[in-house]
Amino acid sequence: MDTDTLLLTLIAILLPPVAVFLHRGLGRDLLVNLLACLLFFVPGILHALWVVHRRSP
């Protein structure tokens, strides 16, 4: 795991939408994460971790 991924992981735990924005920018992933965080915070964290650690096609 490189330093960027480690920092994004820490940010994803503390501020999930910020981590998704830094990793993917504006888009569907950010919208989904914002909705998940507004409904319940834990699904937002899980989604952010998934976005940060999944492989890009």
UniProtKB/TrEMBL annotation:
| Record's GO cellular component terms | membrane
Q: Which family does it belong to?
A: Belongs to the UPF0057 (PMP3) family.
Localized where? Membrane
Output the InterPro entries linked to this UniProt entry: PMP3 (IPR000612)
Q: Which UniProt keywords apply?
A: Membrane, Transmembrane, Transmembrane helix
Q: Source organism's superkingdom? A: Bacteria
**What protein does this entry describe?**
Uncharacterized membrane protein YqaE, homolog of Blt101, UPF0057 family
Question: TM segments?
Answer: 30-52
Broad class of where this protein is predominantly found: membrane
Read off the PROSITE patterns from this record.
Answer: UPF0057
